[in-house]
Amino acid sequence: MLKSLFNFATMDLGIDLGTTNTLVYMKSRGIVSNEPSVVAVHKDSQGTRKVIAVGEEAKKMLEKTPGSIVTCQPIKDGVIADFETTEVMLKYFIKRIHSKKFYTRPRIVISVPFSVTPTEKRAVKEAAKSAGAHEVYLIEEPMAAAIGVGLPITAPAGSMIVDIGGGTTEVAVISLAGVAYCNSVRIAGDKIDKAIIHYIRRKYNLLIGQRTAEKIKTTIGSAYPSPNEEEMKMDINGRDISNGIPKTLEISSKEIREAITEPVIAIVDAVRIALERMPPELASDIIDKGIVISGGGALLKNLDLFFTEVTGLPVIIAENPLTAVVEGAGKALDEISLLKEIATNC
Prior knowledge:
Layout (H helix, E strand, L loop, with lengths): L1 H9 L2 E5 L3 E6 L3 E7 L2 E5 L5 E6 L1 H4 L9 E4 L2 E2 L2 E2 L2 H16 L8 E6 L5 H13 L4 E6 H9 L9 E6 L4 E7 L2 E8 L3 H16 L1 E2 L2 H11 L12 E8 L5 E7 H7 L1 H17 L2 H10 L1 E4 L8 H9 L3 E3 L6 H9 L3 H7 L4
Parallel strand pairs: 1-9, 9-10, 11-17, 17-18
Antiparallel strand pairs: 1-2, 2-3, 4-5, 4-6, 7-8, 11-12, 12-13, 14-15, 15-16
Helix pairs in contact: 3-4, 5-12, 6-7, 9-11
């Protein structure tokens, strides 16, 4: 009996339900799943929808499917855009992780953007319960990220975390186990990818897909030039809009830096606005401690240099930027009293 109760407890999950990727943390085991937040749906002539792939398998189909198959990302800008598909996706991840024990109803902690509405919060909770959760707790992404990177969230002092995900950027100051100030903008990694797509199309009349744009960003993208930096170049493939013929061209890191200037400045402006509007006592704490950046966007080359240039403050890239939020959600399961204190109510 005691063993079965222990197994039940260790089935508890922390979930980072991201625009780009969904990560799942299982208590006592760590991160057990990290897959794209993509679902492939087959539609027949009667309009009936059937899910045929989720996660990595669905992402492979992006922009390569026939008319009868649609690939979609049910999470838009960090919140549920398609409740039905999100529920299917959550069920897939939870049941696959629990394997033959999927009938166990776990306690689940899910991170949500600070700016979500009560209606959106209820949608997330309902999706998780429909997917098999016994209890569902929602915690704000900046709080989860702060826990995940090891910031002293219960201390009577301010700690600033900037979490740059796929759909949203959250700039928050954490103090005394609460979000003392937060500035949330729906500009993040996806907007940077789209900026690259638009730039290539406008300048070269070449159409590229989202996966190609993401590869360009991670390979030669940068937010700020390094001292004595050598220009990097990369060959990309796309379709010439004028004649429809596939075409290859070479682009440079300088061009990509120009292409992503607008969304990067918008992210840095969110940080600057936060520094201007937070209470003075908290601001003095940030001067001493600096700013911590997490999320996939933290991996954009030289973003920390750009932040320092604009704010004049020391900037630290988290050791675990891609997994900070889900690790924070998972670690919250170890302290239920703290979890209940930091959980956001619908």
